[in-house]
Each structure stands twice: as structure tokens, then as C-alpha cells.
Amino acid sequence: MKTKAVRIYGKEDLRLEEFELPAIKDDEILAEVISDSVCMSSHKAALQGPDHKRVPNDVAENPTIIGHEFCGIIREVGKKWQEQYKPGDKFSIQPATNYMGRLDAPGYSYKYIGGDSTFVVIPHEVMECGCLLEYKGDAFFYGSLAEPMSCIVGAFHANYHTTPGKYTHEMGIVEGGNMAMLASAGPMGLGAIDYALHCDRRPARLVVTDIDTARLNRAAEILTVEEAKKCGVELHYVNTAEVADPVEYLMGLTDGKGYNDVFVFAPVRPVVEMGDKLLAFDGCLNFFAGPTKQDFSAEFNFYNVHYAAHHIVGTSGGNTDDMIESIKMMNEGKIDPSAMITHIGGMNCVIDTVLNLPKIPGGKKLTYTHIELPLTAIADFAEKGKNDPMFAELDRIVKGNNGLWCSEAEKYLLANAKHI
To answer: Beta partners for 169?
Structure first.
């Protein structure tokens, strides 16, 4: 069977090609990919090429398929897995298999599996590690967002706090405590706010900061103060650029007690240092943002490390349990990460999107692998619709859903867009 895929050959060398997939072995699965959301990690892999820890050294001769936030349909199942998986089942994948302690992952390391492809061969290690996950949602894009959501879930679980008088840690955020999310009105921040409001271990007070008024206002429209109140959470949105002394103001929201859990969503030194100053006794700062500079650093008050039990944790991705939790919460309607998505495109736009991702404003860029479509902001559907009836209809659909991408829009797009 032939597949079309974007493959990496070296640094900034991505190519959209058609090639033959091998017949599956008894311990493999053939699958069709429908959607993939573009991750900053793919951009980093494209820039670094074989210098990236997950990209093989010989990609120039044996290129690998990029994309690791994907969802699709199982089409053929090898004999070994026929009791567990069936053709027609929808799936999502946890790319961090950690098979035999290796860093190999779909979307970085394999010739025949990655999200930016039409069909893939899923190798045995994905199933053996329990990383081929059943997905029952009615929209494929939610399955693509399960992986980024799992990063958020994992971050919440990774925070920890001390137990007075004992050398044991209690994992997770402080239930009923104060939480701050700094620089968090972007796509991952929206997902984190959603999770904080609807998970089973919630803060009593959540303060969300950013320096972009438009992003904060949009976040407040999607995840409202009223909805948070129903969940038992006092929610504040704060533009720190409009406050004379942001630390004093944010501390005032806690009556000077500080924050038990602080999440930093931007690799910016002043933001990290602000987070340090906001911590309460036994406060945990989660450096969620992934810096591109290997020498990124910031000052941290070690007096408070010693006497106030301040501490830092960093997370890079979630595990399989985190992804299962994400899918379960989406299936149950408890979280809706569609707010992350700001752009839609087809396979033809993947290369430019991956290579230029930091320069493209907005949130998540969602691609559908079987169609040809320029990367288009959802906010631009109305303008595009003046000359294109398909975009006019997509604009009508999303406007009926608070401006958010949705299952109805996906179904319409897949039925009406040009196939690649």
C-alpha cells in the first residue's frame, strides 16, 4: 500500500513524498491517519535533524515520518493483536513508549509511522508498551489533542508537596489551595485552565496571567469566571503588564499567603523569577515551558528553598496513564480542548507550518492528512468565505460553537475539502 507522508532527511530538510509501505507482520498493525496537531517538539526536531535525541543519525539515507499528535482508524491487524484490536477501531497514540529504555518514538524515529502521513505501519513496541490507545470520540481532532492534554495532566500529577515531620512527598497540586498560571492564555494554558476547573483535585483559587489583553479576554470568554464558580474555583484573569507591581498585586489576591502551586508557561526569565516570589510555604513551581536555549537560566531564592520548603519541578510530556485520563475526560465531556486550536490545514501545509511554527501567531495548528488546504486561521474563515463557499459554511458552523473548532466542522471539512 502507498502512503503520503512528510519525512525528515536532515536539518530543516522536510519532504512530502509518496512511497510504498511494507506488508504488515504478525505483530504489526496497519492504520489510517486522519488528523495530526503540530507540536513545537516537531519544530525542534526539524531544526536539529539528527542532532535531536529522538531522530536517528542516518535520516539522510533512512528518512523518518514526523508528527506525533495523531488520531485515526485501524485498518488491518496482525495475528498477534487480533484479540485486542479490530479493523475500524479509532485510535490515539502515546508516542513516548520508552520501549527498553530507548527514546525512539513515532513522529521522530520511525520510517513507517508518524502523524503526518495518510497510512502507517504501527510497530510491535507501541502495542507491547500499551501505547496504542482506544479512542471512542466522534471527532478525530480530540484524539490528536489527547497527547498535548496528557502533558498538562502529567504536570499536575508531577507537582509535589512535603509532609510535615516526614521525608515523604504527597504528589499532585494542593487541593483547595491557591494556584497561579503565569503567561498562560495561550493554547496549552487554556487546556490547563480547563483541566484545573474540571479535574478531581482542584484549587480553591486560580489566577491566570498574561500580557496580551486579547488573549486574556478570549480565555475569559471560553473558560468563564461563572463556570469556574460552579466548579468551586475562584478564577481571576490578570494582565500583569497593566499592574504597577505584579507580585504585590497577585500576592494580594491570596491575602499575602502566596500560591501553593505556580505553573510557568513561558521560558522567560522574569516570568520564572516572578513565580519564585509568589510561592507560599512548601510551594511548588512547575516550569512547564520548554526552552529552546540549552543555557536558559533564572534566579531562584535559595533562602526560601532552605527555610520555606520552596521547590521546582519540570515536566516534559505525560505518560500513558495521563493520556488515558485525557481521553476519558474528553469522552465524558468533562474537558473540551478545542479552544487550543486556532488554525486548520491539510497535508500540503505541514512543511511550512513545522519549519515556521514560532513565527505563526495563535494556538494549535491542526492538520488533516488526506486533504489539501492552506493553513488557515479560524478567525479568517469569514474573509475566506467571501470567495469560497466551503469556508463560508465552516465559518457558520464555528460561529455557532463560540468560534471554536468542533465535530460538525470536522465532518464538513473532510466531506468537502479537496483530497491530496
So the answer is: 162
Residue 84 Cα distances to 24, 29, 87, angstroms: 16, 11, 11
Residue spans of beta strands (DSSP E) within 124-256: 132-134, 160-162, 169-171, 178-182, 205-210, 234-239
The pTM for the full model equals: 0.91
Cell numbers 498585586: residue: 249
Q: Which residues pair with 182 in a beta bridge?
A: 264
Rg for the chain, CA atoms, rounded: 22
Query: In 26-183, where does DSSP find H-type helix?
Result: 40-48, 124-128, 140-158
348: left (phi over 0), alpha (psi -120 to 50) or beta: alpha
pLDDT tens digits, the chain, 420 residues: what are they? 999 999 999 999 999 999 999 999 999 999 999 999 999 899 999 999 999 999 999 999 999 999 999 999 999 999 999 999 999 999 999 999 989 989 999 999 999 999 999 999 999 999 999 999 999 999 999 999 999 999 999 999 999 999 989 999 999 999 999 999 999 999 899 999 999 999 999 999 999 999 999 999 999 999 999 999 999 999 999 999 999 999 999 999 999 999 999 999 999 999 999 999 999 999 999 999 988 788 999 999 999 999 999 999 998 888 999 999 999 999 999 999 999 999 999 999 999 999 999 999 988 999 999 999 999 999 999 999 999 999 999 999 999 999 999 999 999 999 999 999
Grid coordinates of 102 = 530507548
d(CA 299, CA 406): 42
Residue 122 pairs in a beta bridge with 29
Is the dihedral angle over the CA atoms 21, 23, 28, 33 positive or is it negative? positive
